[in-house]
Amino acid sequence: MLARVVENVYWLARYLERAENTARLVNVNTNLVLDLPSGFAPGWMLLVDISGGREVFDALDGRAEDANAERRVVRFLLAERQNAGSIVSSLQSAHENSRTLREVLPSEVSELLNEFFAEFTRDLANGLNKRTRFDFLKQTVLRLQTLAGQLDGTMNRNDAYTFLQIGRNLERADMTSRIVDVRSAQLLPADTPELRPFDTVQWMSVLKSLSGYQMYRLRMRSRVRRADVMQFLLRDDQFPRACGFCFNQIRDALRGLPRGAEVLALLEDAGRFLGEANLETLDQAGLHILVDRLQLRIQGIHDGIAQRYFPSRDAANGALRATRAREQALSVVQSQSTGVAVPGP
Predict the structure, then answer these.
(1) Which of 61, 130, 125 has the alpha carbon at shortest distance from 88?
(2) pLDDT per position as a tens digit, 284-310
């Protein structure tokens, strides 16, 4: 199969998964607003940082956290076409990719994606309205899961499907780690002891944002506890949105492809890194650094896949930029001292 085809399938999967998880990410904060006592609300600007869009956001807006931050951030993450990570941009990119994949995608999938993209753009105002946002995003997640089910249920198990699985699981691991990082960014003020009882509420919200609350209770057989939630979302090998599960899925897919040894080594390194982290002792700063270092490894896995299987000029340039960004981020991480057990880079 042509490298151009599998590259487009890989990115189609990533765009669809990114759109779904951006909707989930916004609902983390929306749920917290509903669950926390009146007078306290989580910040919204941190969602821009978690999505990796701060530079674009500052260029378009530039204002700091204020009373209108929620409205501005939600618009940026849902409807801003200049933000490549927004839901509307991700869906548009997926829609454009699908038009080049008519020979490998089932016609039902293309039709469903066309219909959903038209509906999303038509009803986008409902996502920007605070009263209707939750239901709109919930419906967005449901439609994207329907698309994923159509792909799984109708595609031949060939190279195109293999790269669909790789793209989906890599994006899923990336966004699960980002959603976990929401909690490490100090959503609540550190100097408000009266909010400590709501710590569990925040972690429940993170689980629910990944549709993982019931599965957590079934798997862990315990109340919601910070270290157990991190164990479940970062290391678990049964929950489909856990980073550990996603790495295993990518590994299984790569084993059926040639020239995958180096990428498999990167996957093993990422799994070993998570396995060595002492989640019981990580404070908020330590968790943030852990996720930063995990993000570097996920980016490295993407670079390895791009360079081996679809080394286009854009992929090569993107890999070079990502490598430089990783080196810069790593130097910042290494300069910080947290006093907690975080595996080294």
Answers:
(1) 125
(2) 788 888 998 999 999 999 999 999 998
Residue pair 229/268 in contact (Cβ under 8 Å)? The answer is: no
| Contacts of 169 by beta carbon, 8 Å cutoff, 6+ apart | 246, 247, 249, 250, 253
How far, in whole angstroms, is CA 56 from its chain's centroid? Answer: 18
Average pLDDT score, the chain: 84
35, burial (CB in 10 Å: exposed 0-12, middle 13-18, buried 19+):
middle
Q: Where are the beta strands (DSSP E) in 165-235?
A: none
Residue with tokens 């286009």: 312
Burial-class residue 174 by CB neighbours within 10 Å (0-12, 13-18, 19+): buried
pTM (predicted TM-score): 0.85
Distance CA 235, CA 246 (A): 10
- Burial state string for 47-64 with b = 16 or more CB within 10 A and e = fewer than 16: bbebbebeebbeeeeeee
pLDDT at site 319: 44
Q: How far apart are CA 233 and CA 182, in angstroms?
A: 13
Residue 127, classified by CB atoms within 10 Å of its CB into exposed (0-12), middle (13-18) or buried (19+), is: buried
The CA distances from residue 262 to 49, 300, 304, 312, 313, in Å, are 30, 11, 7, 19, 21
Domain ranges of the chain: 3-185+198-334
Q: Are 279 and 230 in contact (CB under 8 A)?
A: yes
Can you tell me the distance from the alpha carbon of 298 to that of 276, in angstroms, rounded to the nearest whole number?
17
> Torsion over CA of 202, 141, 235 and 278, rounded to 10 degrees?
-30
